[in-house]
Amino acid sequence: MDLAYPAGTPPHHPGPLARFLPPLEEGSVAQILDQPAGGGEVVFDPFGASPRLAIDAARAGRAVLVASNNPVTRFVLEHTATPLAENDLRAALTRLGSTAKDDSRLEPFLLDLYLTECSVCGGRVSADHFIWDREGPRLELKAYHCPSCNHAGEEAASDLDRERAHAYTRRSLQHAQALEQVAPTGDPDREHAEAALAAYPARALYALVTVLNKLEQSELEPRMRAAAHALLLSTFDAGNALWGHPEGRARPRALIASPHYREVNIWRQMERSMGEWSLPASGVSLRTWKEGLPLERGCVTVFPGPARELMSALVRQPPDVLLTVPPRPNQAYWTLSALWAAWLWGRSEAAPIRVALRRRRYDWAWHTAALRTALSGVFSSLRRETPAFVLVPEAEPGFTAAVLTAFDHAGLHLGGAVLRAAEGQLYLAGRIEPASAIPLPAGEVGRRAAVVIETALEARSEPAPFALLHLAALEDLGMSRQLAAHAVSEDVAGPNPIAQAVESALADRVRFVHLGVGAEPESGSYWLARLRATPPAPLADRVELLLLERLQQEGRMLLVDMDREMCSAFPGILTPDRRWVLACLRSYAEQPESGETWILRGEDAPQARLRDLEELRGLLKDLGLRLGHRVEAGEAEVIWEAPLGGRVAVFRIQPTSALGPFLADSSPEVTFVLPGGRAALLGEKARRDPRMRGWLQSGTRLIKFRHVRRLASELTLRPETWRDRLALDPMAEQDPQLPLL
């Protein structure tokens, strides 16, 4: 079936630990549950990887059961559903800061760890952060704001700054305590825990353990202690060396320090962390699962363990819908979670995820097996025909194949899949129906993939990236239950046979052309070596024209509403990327600074464009006659002919950038006349479609409406000079939006 992608919006407040948790969009879950197949009272998430998914499902009026094996993710879910009060966060910070430390308090003690000198007034100031070069390692830069002279900025670190930083070593008592809390002497995971601790600068570890010691000695009521844990979790995250400079908030997946990393001031970071946890009320309730406890609408019930331990309960009270975000393999987050859980809640709480400390292999074959193990037996506990929906916010070909194969093996009968390749957003839908299939011969898999890919390209009528065509082939195999049949064991070395079949199919130069740079199969895009029939308009043109039609009908629309309409009108393999939808909106509409609504530009209103077209036809007709040509003026085309016969020029007047039908036309006498507002849209089309890029670079002439008006007003224009004047547009250099025109 052709799925419509459940378009949402990027969250206004990403929330705590956002760089590690799935970037799920707001509104996607409600879209899924609002459709007929998503009905039912109880929603089950077997992975619990996305706190937003559970909360949004409860907001949609469902009873939500979540299996969450990671205590860190579970803590984020708990305090996103029932946010911590800002007063509790502030009070926890104040209580910690006022705790006695040596002859002072904890706050000034921690601030003094990062002391530096102001380069202007020489005053002592606590730096906000330092920048290290990993090779060495060497302290390179410092950033601070001097309260004495108000000097602020980032500048070179001094020798004294380096001396202070190197005073903290990995042989300190605090380092030993951090290690002992995770893996005591004699623990087989001790060497792995020590390797994980290397992700932290020595001074940061010293500061963090100092705070943890003071927290353990403090008598705080439960809400204030939870607030302190929240502040520390965000500080644990910010305090490691995975934060690159100057690239900012990356999404690290390996526990490797960035080449240039940021060492933050731990106390200043705890102050900033309050903003991450000061969340708006969610409108839902949350509780821990207990045997026999009925599930309630608008409530998230959390099972603190793997989903397979819930099988007997699922049989007694089966959910109506399975809805989940599978976890992406991430050594950094899983390993750090094991450290953080042990530091905050003890080794027993971290035990379920301690295996992450020793796990070094995170390839796609391993992840397929890990997902399959996590789902093992769960699907057999659910009712047959239970609808299942899977969102994968960080999709790439390997992850896509792992998810589809694992779910096929577990008992998902795939009904459809849709991918927004530019955004890396995958959506799957199907139903629980355990079954097996007789494997197709290896050669048949490749032949079948080639046919599916060819059909997909014909339907889109434009080149497509590898990820999209790879999914089209996997979707076909998944719907016929072939993915599990062709899966390989994680212990078997070598390429995945299905991925190999897809790559081999695309390597057939009789059928497909690989466009773009790079020899790797996943680079560039692919197109058909030959067309079997007259193709429809390119997908980009179809989306543009429908979007313009809807804008002209409504006058104004929100991006999310337009995006959803485009996803509904172009489902499955035709789903447009949001980047293209937004590019079209920017071309035809404008957005007032005060709001989120896009309003149709006055010049693109139907009557205004009709007047423009009529005016342009008249101007080109009069101009041709004035230059001594015979003129034939049609509805969208004006032809100049020499008095003795033969075409001199053809002007095609286009109010849109839907030029797909003309890509095969390289007639030198043809000039396309477009509104200047289409320039950026043509540039985006050239970026996404190598055929359009080549066509524009081949010498195709494009001029703006306003340039025709300018030429028509030039009384000195002559038959021998008009071509040169046609190529000139002095406004192009002044308007950065019009480099192509």
Structure commentary:
The chain has 741 residues and is α/β, with parallel strands linked by helices. It has four domains: 28-82 and 281-435, Rossmann fold (3-Layer(aba) Sandwich), CATH 3.40.50.150; 87-276, no CATH class; 539-600, Orthogonal Bundle (Arc Repressor Mutant, subunit A); 606-726, no CATH class. Helix 4 (86-97) runs antiparallel to helix 11, helix 22 (559-569) packs across helix 23 and helix 24 (606-626) packs parallel to helix 27 (705-712). The longest helix is centred in the last third of the chain and has 21 residues, at 606-626. It is globular.
**CATH architecture verdict of the largest domain:** 3-Layer(aba) Sandwich
Count of structural domains: 4
Reported for the largest beta sheet, the result is: 8 strands, mixed
The fold-level CATH name of the largest domain is Rossmann fold
The DSSP helix count reads 28
Low-pLDDT residue intervals, each spanning 5 or more residues:
730-741
Query: Looking at this structure, what is the CATH superfamily of the largest domain?
Result: Vaccinia Virus protein VP39
Helix- and strand-based class?
A: alpha/beta
